[in-house]
Design the sequence.
């Protein structure tokens, strides 16, 4: 049983295609602050193209092109990146940007912000750095007990990739503790994360085993593991690739993939399982969201198009947007092209 939706979300699609544009436009090396997305295969594919992933922008040579990852970066990191004098493209997911904005606004209005997230995760680190003096990280109910009397209005925000059950539990406790708690009208949880969890729930209880494809440092992938276990599936396995599948799987096997896992890994897993009774795809919703390339990249691509038009004595080419074809191309196609 194959869950749908699964795999790449709109934010991951945007980030992968943006970094591929950078690889196409610039001579290597292109630098990227943190892994562009949390998937080993995607990161390795870009390393093969000369991309250098770093955890500190101070280690990036001055003037070289730099991309900031989809998870969002602290304001001081963005400032330091732009101070280097090279092209900087921020591939942050728009849904993460929304949470950054909410934290900034609540902080300015005098709120204490409780942020439900995972300590050390890039998204949580980048978000909390927006207003460090006003925010408290919540991972467990005990963190709420330790807060004491805050003496300010209180707001509740969340890391976008949490499991819904994990978020709901802390949200309910926070609401009981702070009756006037402010929360955004639209949940901070990423729609793609929520959709993938709903699709998995639709098959997990009917499965003898569930395979979750994705990397261990992917928060939404770990959340899928938790969802499968909470749904009562007796055996849940997270794997990076088909070679990690055990040989003793029997009965009905459910398969899903984290939001940064390529569909090619799903195809390889299905081929390795070789199900005797075929594959049933269970769809809970159809996603058609699209996030365009980062604005800095769109400006860069227009400039490149204008230059090429000038060099070819075709000035009308400068009016064309080389990024206009972005929507028609999938990140999976881009990764295939990089590998060829």
Sequence:
């Amino acid at each position: 049983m194959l869950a749908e939706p699964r795999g790449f979300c709109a934010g991951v699609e945007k980030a992968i295609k943006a970094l591929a544009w950078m690889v196409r436009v610039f001579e290597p090396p292109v630098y990227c602050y943190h892994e562009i997305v949390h998937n080993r295969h995607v990161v390795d594919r870009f390393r093969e193209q000369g991309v250098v992933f770093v955890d500190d922008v101070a280690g990036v040579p001055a003037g070289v092109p730099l991309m900031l990852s989809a998870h969002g970066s602290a304001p001081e990191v963005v400032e330091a990146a732009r101070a280097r004098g090279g092209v900087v493209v921020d591939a942050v997911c728009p849904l993460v940007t929304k949470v950054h904005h909410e934290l900034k606004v609540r902080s300015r209005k005098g709120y204490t912000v409780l942020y439900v997230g995972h300590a050390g995760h890039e998204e949580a680190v980048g978000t909390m750095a927006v207003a460090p003096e006003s925010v408290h990280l919540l991972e467990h109910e005990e963190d709420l007990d330790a807060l004491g009397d805050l003496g300010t209005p209180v707001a509740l925000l969340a890391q976008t990739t949490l499991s819904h059950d994990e978020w709901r539990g802390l949200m309910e406790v926070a609401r009981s503790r702070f009756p006037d708690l402010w929360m955004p009208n639209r949940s901070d949880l990423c729609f793609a994360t929520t959709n993938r969890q709903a699709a998995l729930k639709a098959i997990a209880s009917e499965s003898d085993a569930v395979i979750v494809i994705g990397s261990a440092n992917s928060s939404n992938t770990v959340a899928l593991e938790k969802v499968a276990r909470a749904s009562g599936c007796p055996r849940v396995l997270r794997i990076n690739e088909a070679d990690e599948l055990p040989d003793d799987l029997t009965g009905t096997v459910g398969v899903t993939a984290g939001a940064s896992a390529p569909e090619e890994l799903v195809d390889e897993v299905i081929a390795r399982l070789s199900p005797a009774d075929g594959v049933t795809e269970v769809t809970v919703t159809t996603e058609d969201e699209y996030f365009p390339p980062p604005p800095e990249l769109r400006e860069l691509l227009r400039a490149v198009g204008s230059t090429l038009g000038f060099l070819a004595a075709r000035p009308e080419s400068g009016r064309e947007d080389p990024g206009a074809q972005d929507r028609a191309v999938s990140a999976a196609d881009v990764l295939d092209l990089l590998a060829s």
